[in-house]
Design goal:
The protein is mostly beta strands and 171 residues long. The chain has strands at residues 8-12, 23-29, 34-44, 62-67, 74-79, 87-89, 94-100, 109-118, 126-128, 159-161. The strands form 3 sheets. A 4-stranded antiparallel beta sheet has the order 1-8-3-6, with no helix packed on it. The radius of gyration is 20 Å and the shape is elongated.
Amino acid sequence: ILSKQNPSHVIDKGAQIQANNLECIYRITGEPMSNLKVNFDQMHLSICDPDQHRNDTCDCDYLEILDGNGPFSQVIGRFCGHDVGRSVYSTGSSLYIRLVTDGNRPSTGFKLTVSMQESPCGSQPFFNLTEHGKEIFTLTSPKLAGQSNYQPNLRCMWTFESAYRDTLEIV
């Protein structure tokens, strides 16, 4: 569990040979209204064909990252080979990470860092307009400091609630 006091965690499986036919599960959860960023520091997971530098299907040894807290969450990606230097982002405050190995070729593992960050969507996803009368609310798209584009996998949602028969006008 990540928190403001402990905002990142390193999963280091890079100094050991992975066993055959292994399935390891890592569940990472941050605080509400945060999202998680995964940085690949090291990646040495066997590809099926040693003559290929990359295996797009990652059928042998792979690391699978899902956007949520369980095995039926949406798959962000499946990673294998020696692909490092990339970042992966969750849409919410939890990730389900699965390491799978087969008996085909040995792997030396991986090392990644999971960091919690404040959601770029803001800290208030719910607005109760009945408590504020006829006020005007201005909602703007998230602004990310120092970035010209949104991060990959960003999904923002806001909910507005008003009194029965009140009209919401979006302009």
